[in-house]
C-alpha cells in the first residue's frame, strides 16, 4: 500500500488528512513535520 494517499473518508487523523501524507513518505521523510503539524492542527 506504499504511496497510496489517504483520503478524507478513510478515518485518518486530521493532520494526516490535511497534509495528504502517503504511507511511503510520512515515516522516513515527513515524520517530524507531520507530528508537528498534527500537534498544531
Name the features.
single chain; about 40 residues; mainly alpha; flat
Major sheet description: none
Number of domains: 1
Gross morphology is: flat
Radius of gyration: 9 Å
Tell me the span between the first and last alpha carbons: 26 Å
Q: Care to count the β-strands? A: 0
Order of helices and strands: HH
Low-confidence stretches: none
Roughly what is the average pLDDT, rounded to an integer? 57
How much of the sequence is in beta strands?
under 5%
The class by helix and strand makeup works out as mainly alpha
Summed up, the helix count is 2
Binned, the helix content reads 25-40%
In short:
By secondary structure, the protein is mainly alpha-helical.
Description:
This protein has 41 residues and is mainly alpha-helical. The protein has one domain (1-41). The protein is 39% helix and 0% strand.
Topology, element by element:
Elements: H1 14-19, H2 31-40
